[in-house]
């Protein structure tokens, strides 16, 4: 009798495993900026982020990698979370989509942290002067930190889980 119950439970678990693996193959977690995230002047935050990530010789903007470097630094941790999380999925303790959303939130948090830690290369004198002009006369505090003029890039960084058909 116990053996029969085990077989039935085993069959259900195999079915669940197949369903969850099929779903996981269709899901993808993306970290970055939505199209709706735009600065006051209308420029997309994602576009500015790309320029900062890779730099621009034409505009004399140095590369300040925060996406690629975070991925390289955190990949092993994210893989561990995925492994542990999928074990919880198989145990019926969480859903696959929920796992992908959690990984996205962790990754977005890691990228945000990386952005806050970047101080080099230092801002160009022209950038510092532009910030001072925007701050207005008499402003005493002007941020010298790269990647954080207004804080909007940091605030609008998000993650999204998409399902491909």
Q: How many helical elements? A: 6
Question: What series of H and E elements makes up the topology?
Answer: HEHHHHHE
Q: Quote the distance from N terminus to C terminus.
A: 42 Å
Helix proportion: 55-70%
- Spatial strand arrangement across the major sheet: 1-2
Which word captures the global form?
Answer: elongated
Question: What's the gyration radius in Å?
Answer: 22 Å
**Unreliable segments (pLDDT under 50, ≥5 consecutive)?**
1-8
DSSP strand tally: 2
How would you portray this structure in words?
- Helix 3 runs antiparallel to helix 4.
- Strands 1-2 form a two-stranded antiparallel ribbon.
- Helix content is 59%, strand content 7%.
- 12% of the residues are buried.
- It has helices at residues 2-26, 45-54, 67-90, 96-117, 125-135, 152-156, and strands at residues 27-32, 158-163.
- It is built from six helices and two strands; from the N terminus they run αβαααααβ.
- Mean pLDDT is 90; it is low at 1-8.
- The protein is mostly helical and 165 residues long.
Any chance you could write out the topology, listing elements then pairs?
Elements: H1 2-26, E1 27-32, H2 45-54, H3 67-90, H4 96-117, H5 125-135, H6 152-156, E2 158-163
Antiparallel strand pairs: 1-2
Short description:
With 165 residues, this protein is mainly alpha-helical. 59% of the residues lie in helices and 7% in strands.
Comma- or semicolon-separated keywords:
about 160 residues, mainly alpha, two-stranded antiparallel sheet, 6 helices, elongated, disordered N terminus
């Amino acid at each position: 009798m116990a053996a029969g119950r085990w077989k039935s439970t085993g069959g259900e678990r195999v079915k669940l495993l197949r369903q969850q693996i099929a779903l996981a193959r269709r899901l993808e977690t993306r970290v970055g900026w939505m199209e709706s995230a735009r600065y006051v002047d209308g420029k997309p935050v994602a576009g500015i982020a790309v320029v900062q990530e890779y730099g621009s010789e034409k505009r004399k903007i140095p590369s300040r990698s925060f996406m690629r470097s975070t991925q390289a630094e955190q990949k092993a941790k994210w893989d561990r979370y995925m492994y542990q999380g999928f074990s919880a999925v198989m145990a019926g303790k969480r859903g696959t989509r929920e796992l992908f959303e959690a990984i996205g939130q962790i990754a977005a948090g890691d990228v945000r942290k990386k952005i806050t830690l970047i101080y080099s290369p230092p801002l160009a004198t022209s950038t510092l002067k532009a910030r001072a002009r925007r701050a207005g006369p008499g402003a005493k505090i002007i941020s010298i930190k790269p990647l954080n003029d207004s804080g909007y890039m940091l605030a609008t960084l998000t993650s999204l889980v998409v399902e491909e058909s």
